[in-house]
Amino acid sequence: MMKFLLLFIFVATIWAQCPEQSEAGRRLYRCVNTTSGQVAGHPSPKKPAVYEYLGIPFAQPPIGDLRFAPPQPFTGSDSLNGTNFGYTCPKLFTDELSLIPSNFPDVVDNYTASGISILDTFTQAGDGPRNNEDCLTLNVWVPKPAQAPDVGSKKAVMIWIYGGAFRDGATESHIYDGSTFVDQEDVIMVSINYRVNIFGFSGDSTGPTSNYGMLDQRLAIEWVYNNIANFGGDPSRITLFGQSAGSCSIDYYSYAYPQDPIVSAMIMQSGTIPALPTFSSTQAFSSWKNTSSSLGCGDASADPASVMQCMRNPNLTTANILQIAHIHTWLPSVDETLVFSDYPARAAAGNITTLPLLIGNTNNEAAVFAAQSLMSGNPVDIPQMTNSTFACPTAARANVSTASGAKTWRYRYFGDFPNLQIQKGVDAGAFHISDVYSVFGTWPTGTGITGAGKEQVSLGRYMRGAWAAFAKDSEQGLSAYGWPVYKPEEETVVRLGWKNSVELVLDRAEVWDSTC
């Protein structure tokens, strides 16, 4: 391992009592010393036995000369109150660009109250003022300790990476609140912000990579490794888990750091490298040069360093950049360091992590994209998109993992509940992101939205139990939970939430993979 990356940083005073104080009606709890300074937590409003440490910076603000640049470790030492989430990294979906804007009343009229809430969550719309380039923070949820974290056994750690098609996403979204999971399963949860769209995947040609969002993820993982013991966590039991682009990120990560993954296990929900396009360097640079040209910073013929200097000018605001950037596509691009052009060959050569893997997808992934298809006038073939974008790549990735010798578990999610219906009179089934509500226990709320029923609550509890069993013991935990290790030729694919039940139902892979 690279020593400077994996140096475990010892902090002399691990767990100190904070001075009696409160902020905005929230009582501050104990302080934890970290490499980012001393951080005070507070009881979660949802689960008072869980303590939140929010908005902890893990990198220097990516502004000025650090805009469109690799992240640098945070060097501040001021005390932090940990009461509020940090800023959301600038997003392309804003109030004006939501999938369900007010100028599409005919579309909105077709959706249930819960459907509008789900789509608002899905697009991360509605919080424009919270967008800020100074966004590289993370959040920690910790079970109320019976003793100081330097005494007794350490807890398993789970790091959440959000989705959003590499365009959008935010840890502060209510759907990713870790308190219910932590309260039930006695693990530590961390969620991390990373740059997206042009700020995270710029396509510029000034350095060895422009996949800055992936470097953000790596730096956050290093921060967790170096600091989580001070919260009572076990740095030898860190599980990455994510959904959609977050899951794609984990797939990319598994190839980028085969010998130095830091983490001990991975959970991939509805996302693999093929789920979203990967740009060539030429394609990525095209988006960059067209944007820089439109902003008056120069086109492909201009000196790259001069273009970059202009694009980093503080007079060029975030809003200025996003106004042009939303016209273009921003995705991970091949750099042969973090993103590669030859994944099948790399897998065959063993250039991939062999960490235990839990992987799966929902049964009707593409149903959530119905809003886009209604507005664009280009209907989506839901079964075809579900298979080609999600189910078949999931099957292929599970098979790669098994072939590499890694212990692998595979599921297909079927949960289908009234408060997760998107369109009026249309059963969406288990759509993209619907499993996340079950994993976190964060159901849609609001006027006209029914609460979670008994079956839904039971399934969520069962899934959190499975995810946590894997995180606590990635080699044997799921087997002890009753799930068989995935073998394509045997009945080892778990039907998760089949008929909204927690009953264990198993299939051969061919039941779902015959069309792949």
Structure, explained:
A hairpin with a 2-residue loop joins strand 2 (22-23) and strand 3. The protein has helices spanning 3-6, 105-108, 113-123, 179-185, 197-200, 212-227, 245-256, 281-294, 304-311, 318-325, 343-348, 370-376, 382-403, 434-440, 454-472, 477-481, 510-513; strands spanning 15-16, 22-23, 26-27, 31-34, 37-40, 42-43, 50-57, 137-143, 155-161, 188-192, 233-243, 265-269, 357-362, 408-413, 493-496, 505-507. The strands form three sheets. An eleven-stranded mixed β-sheet has the order 6-7-8-10-9-11-12-13-14-15-16, with helices on both faces. The chain is of the alpha/beta class and 516 residues long. The chain folds into two domains: 1-14 and 26-99 and 136-355, 3-Layer(aba) Sandwich (Rossmann fold); 356-516, no CATH class. It is built from 17 helices and 16 strands.
Structural class: alpha/beta
User: What is the CATH level 1 assignment of the largest domain?
Assistant: Alpha Beta
Strand order of the largest sheet: 6-7-8-10-9-11-12-13-14-15-16
The count of β-strands is 16
Determine the CATH topology of the largest domain: Rossmann fold
- The Rg value, from CA coordinates, equals 22 Å
Task: Give the integer mean of the pLDDT values.
Answer: 88
The termini sit apart by 38 Å
Task: Give the DSSP E fraction (strand runs of 2 or more residues).
Answer: 15-25%
Number of domains as seen in the coordinates: 2
- What is the 3D shape? globular
Provide the descriptors you would attach to this structure in a database record.
single chain, 516 residues, alpha/beta, Rossmann fold, three-stranded antiparallel sheet, 16 strands, globular, hydrolase, EC 3.1.1.-, carboxylic ester hydrolase activity, signal
